Amino acid sequence: MLDNVDPFIGTAATDLPPARGLAATWWFPKPQVGNTHPGATAPLGMVSACAYSGAYPTGYGRYTKNTEGVPETMYDRVQASGFTHFQQSGTGAIRKYYNYVRVTPMVQPLDDLGQSWALHDETAEAGYYAATLDTGIRSEITVGDKVAIHRYTFPAHRSARVVIDLSCGGLATELGRTIPLRAQVESMGHGTAQGTVVMEGVPLSVYVEVDGPNWRQMLWYDRRLIDGGTRLDFDSIRQTNLRPFGMLFMGSTRPGQTVEVRLGFSLRGPEQARDNLYRECNGDRPAFTAVRAKTRAKWREQFDKVQVDGGTDARRTVLGTSLYHALIKPCFADDESPFWPTSGPYAFDVCTMWDIYKTQIPLLSALVPDRAADLLESLIRVCEEEGNFPIGYRMARGADRFFRQASSLAHTAIADAHALGRAGIDWAWALVHMVDDLRRMYGEDFYEHGVVHPITHTLDLAYAYHCTARVARAVGDRRLAADLEERSRGWVNAFDPVTGLLRDSEFYEGGKWNYSFRLLHDMRARIDLAGGDLAFIGKLDRFFGYGAEPVKQPGRRPPAAEMVAGYALKRFEGLNNEPDMEAPWAYHYAGRPDRTAQIVHSALTWQFGTGPGGLPGNDDSGGLSSWYVWASLGLFPVAGQHLFLVNAPAFERAAIQVPDGEFVIETSGHRATPIGVDGIDREPPPLFVQSATLNGKPLHATHLSATDVHRGGRLHLRLGPEPSSWGTSGGTRPPSLSDPAHPEEAR
């Protein structure tokens, strides 16, 4: 599977075959671009490195900031002014864009620093990126968890140089630049230097080694060399007085001579940055080949946990790349928190929690449970140290919590981790913070009035109360659990009983139709509120475009009237946007898993592809790619409910290494269907589950507990081209809080 990874998928504007059938009725409100980058990364590592053009939003590529339609270009070509570190992955307007410590190999004068050169012969794989600049310099980068190793192959030149710019940060877009607050740079001789620059209130330190035989090294300021100077200190930098500054190494090169640049990073000072570099390089000089091999081995270890049989080459490429994108973020910088002094896990770049909590965190819990537990411990520690569970958390002091987007999302992952019996977390400590967090931000209004606007926060908070009640009940505090569960029933206040949809309100992206089909903790009551199964299914059918005409997608600079008309469709956004990514599985709760099968198959077939334009929208830190992984496996996690929903997979057989063994999804009657093809031979594809067994025993329900999956086992699905009675009766539906024999009610 690792050999199927293509890091260039998602780096360019969406370029997929014109959708047909159901998928042609879905409308895209968000930018049609994946916003990923092809740079070198390690699995959930602290450091990434990539070519830097200053483009939105990763620093790589050609596009400017956009919020809808086809992205506009900043540049006519793929280009770079150097190579930076710490990039976003698949986000949109996140406002803090990193791209720190720009390294530029040059054969030009220092005055030309900042000029961009076209990139040629780009190649990328997991843990490695390479390109040739117009100047003839071949540039290769690999990374470890906390280090980056650059290798530059120069042409013959009497004054080649490697320039390190510590003032660089952010993007070359309006309001995209990050201005350092303070900095210190020191040249230590013998090809070594170090520096610390405070960006967004965070001290980022770097320790540098450059293998340049007989090369000179100097500091520079405002593109002027400081001959003989060994230290620069900046106590107060402002946008008005900022001038670029950094380190320079220079000397002559023979044709094909390589120069290696090794950088260790830390958020706790240059000494720890040096220790990180020495530990990961393990004394190797040069270290490029060894670090690249170690990182490749780490990626292979992760990819060996997911194996699939069957499927087309294109589907395997998209699946492999989706798994890769799902394991880039969040960044873990163990023992590196700049905000509290003790050791332990520290996770940052949790930038789209409102997307990843549904799909990516459950994937991490299944594939890398230790890291998933570390993420929760880190979030709990953030709550303890900084006041609340973050909705987004970045490498920035006083990080923007993204409170408008959502409320109390960490509760879902904590509840699932407790139900799975994950060790290493003080659950009483976690429960205290879960309860306290429910009263913060929008939570105070919800506590007092039972409803809050934006109305989606009512759903968030009611769901978080339910998740917290599960933990409280499990640790033995039944009185608290009963109170929390009662408040969790406040989700009903978000809905209009006349329409069966959410009440009119403000919405963060999307509208009330997109959010009306979230998977709540009481879907039985939710369906009753909508008028019962048939009425609920009718609303879903309208939302997903059954019987509707194909729609036209927004183009470049779509006029306001076009966007208004698109929103008026009240239509599924086809994975171009994530608020309704779980909605296809709402049919399971109404006894129509066949509808889920049709929609998911259409999405897998028409909304994803190979090549740079292979994503339908922003990958959002791996949230979208994680959706693709789960959908391809025929499973969908219901975050916070310790539950997986079952659907027809995209592969004949799949096996995933889970914490307690191997979980196998195998099929009979499966037939591979290509991406972007409306049927192979006019014969209906076998989309529908006819019957199922779990470990050899009949499975009539359309769901599994998360424990069933995490302890390993064998799920067999018999597929066919026509819907069946599987999962249609009331007793086979996923559980809801108001079920007559709900286990939590009975205790």
Q: What spatial order of strands do you see in the largest sheet? A: 3-6-7-8-9-18-13-12-11-16
Query: Can you count the helices?
Result: 20
Biggest beta sheet attributes = 10 strands, antiparallel
The rounded Rg comes to: 26 Å
Domain Glycosyl hydrolase family 92 N-terminal: 5-266
GO molecular function: hydrolase activity
Pfam family, one: Glyco_hydro_92N
InterPro entries: 6-hairpin_glycosidase_sf (IPR008928), GH-type_carb-bd (IPR014718), GH92_N (IPR041371), Glyco_hydro_92 (IPR012939), PNGase (IPR050883)
Account of the protein in words:
Helix content is 27%, strand content 23%. The protein is an alpha+beta fold and 747 residues long. The strands form six sheets. Strands 3-6-7-8-9-18-13-12-11-16 form a ten-stranded antiparallel beta sheet. Strand 8 (138-143) and strand 9 form a beta hairpin. The two termini are 45 Å apart.
Q: Can you lay out the helices and strands and say which pair or pack?
A:
Blueprint: E1 40-41, E2 48-52, E3 79-80, E4 82-85, E5 100-106, E6 117-125, E7 128-133, E8 138-143, E9 147-154, E10 157-165, E11 182-189, E12 192-199, E13 202-211, E14 216-221, E15 224-226, E16 231-234, E17 245-253, E18 257-266, H1 270-281, H2 288-303, E19 306-309, H3 313-326, E20 331-332, E21 347-348, H4 353-356, H5 360-367, H6 369-386, H7 410-419, H8 427-437, H9 443-449, H10 456-474, H11 478-488, E22 495-496, E23 501-502, H12 512-515, H13 523-529, H14 533-544, H15 560-568, H16 586-589, H17 593-606, H18 623-633, E24 635-638, E25 643-646, E26 653-658, E27 661-668, E28 688-694, E29 697-698, E30 703-705, H19 706-710, E31 713-720, H20 743-746
Parallel strand pairs: 27-31
Antiparallel strand pairs: 1-2, 2-4, 3-6, 4-5, 5-10, 6-7, 7-8, 8-9, 9-18, 10-17, 11-12, 11-16, 12-13, 13-18, 14-15, 14-17, 19-26, 20-21, 22-23, 24-25, 25-30, 26-27, 28-29, 28-31
Helix pairs in contact: 3-18, 5-6, 7-10, 8-10, 10-11
